[in-house]
Amino acid sequence: MSPIPAWVAPTIAIALVVIAACLLVMGGVALAIGLGLRSRSRALGAQLTAVTTDARALLGRLKHEIEGYVDLSAATRVKLKGAMAAVETRLEALDTLADVLQEEVEDTALSAATFMRTVRRSGSLIGVARRAFKRRRTADREG
């Protein structure tokens, strides 16, 4: 075999040192990135915890408000049912009053018609009596 030239060993040593330095730099960069990501993930975790806490508080307030509206709706529904029952009762009373008034109007109309018939008959009887009285007077004067 041929002897290895003298420059090859130092060149290989230098290349190995450069490769090792590159690997160390890459390891340092990876470590720095990892530490940066770790601190960012902790900050993100803290922000998520704050957001979760705020969301729970908001959800509690919203639940309280919704319960208030449900209670208000139930009370309004009870009042509305009571009002509807009162209106129904009044409408029934009004219907009864209308029936009574209609009967009274019919009775009054019949009474008025009867009275008018009586007046007409009386008028014709008075007319007949008047004519008879006039005839009698004229007969007494002539006779």
Overview of the structural elements:
The relative contact order is 0.02. This protein has one helix at 8-142. It is built from 1 helix and no strands. It has 143 residues and is mainly α. The N and C termini lie far apart (198 Å).
The description of the largest β-sheet is: none
**Beginning-to-end CA distance, first to last residue:** 198 Å
Shape: rod-shaped
Give me the count of strands.
Answer: 0
Count of runs of 4 or more consecutive helical residues: 1
> Oligomerization state of this entry?
single chain
Share of residues in helices: over 70%
H/E series, N to C? H
Mean pLDDT across every amino acid position: 88
Spans of 5+ residues with little confidence (pLDDT < 50)?
none
Residues in β-strands, percent: under 5%
Whole-angstrom Rg: 59 Å
Structural class: mainly alpha
Secondary structure blueprint with pairings:
Elements: H1 8-142
Keywords:
mainly alpha, 1 helix, single chain, 143 residues, 94% helix, rod-shaped
Give a summary of the structure in a few sentences.
By secondary structure, this protein is an all-alpha fold.
